Amino acid sequence: MSLAAIERKIIALEGEMLAAVTREDYETAARLRDEIAALRGSGAVRKPPPGEMGLGTQVPVVEPPKGWKRPKKPDLMTNVKSRKR
Questions:
Q1: What is the Cα–Cα distance from 1 to 38, expressed in whole angstroms?
Q2: Are the C-beta atoms of 39 and 9 separated by less than 8 Å?
Q3: Quick check: 43 pLDDT over 50?
Q4: Buried b / exposed e along 39-77 (16+ C-beta atoms within 10 A)
Q5: How many CB atoms lie within 10 A of CB 84?
Q6: Cα end-to-end distance, the chain, whole Å
């Protein structure tokens, strides 16, 4: 699809989305919003490709910064509230 054709499609979809909102058909408006975002290529609405969904995903685990230490867990058997009088 050419860039001009994509822009025309986006303008048409925006018109349909506004019409859906005035009819209070919010499910259709949300679907059109997602379609517009996909045409624009924005990262706001992203559908994961097949194989990246569910258990066993290929998404890397975020590692903590170097030198970061996990904070100590509080002892739930003690009253740690400080009393200011």
A1: 13
A2: yes
A3: no
A4: eeeeeeeeeeeeeeeeeeeeeeeeeeeeeeeeeeeeeee
A5: 4
A6: 72
Q: What does the DSSP assignment read for 40-82? A: HT-SSS-PPPTTSSSSS--PPPPPPPTT--PPPPP-TTS----
Longest pairwise C-alpha distance within the chain? 72
- Give the tens place of pLDDT for each residue, 16-33: 999 999 999 999 999 999
Q: Which of 11, 61, 48 is nearest to 32 (CA)?
A: 11
Q: Which tokens belong to 27? A: 């499910």
DSSP state at residue 23: T
For residues 85 and 78, give the distance between their C-alpha atoms in angstroms, rounded to a whole number. 20
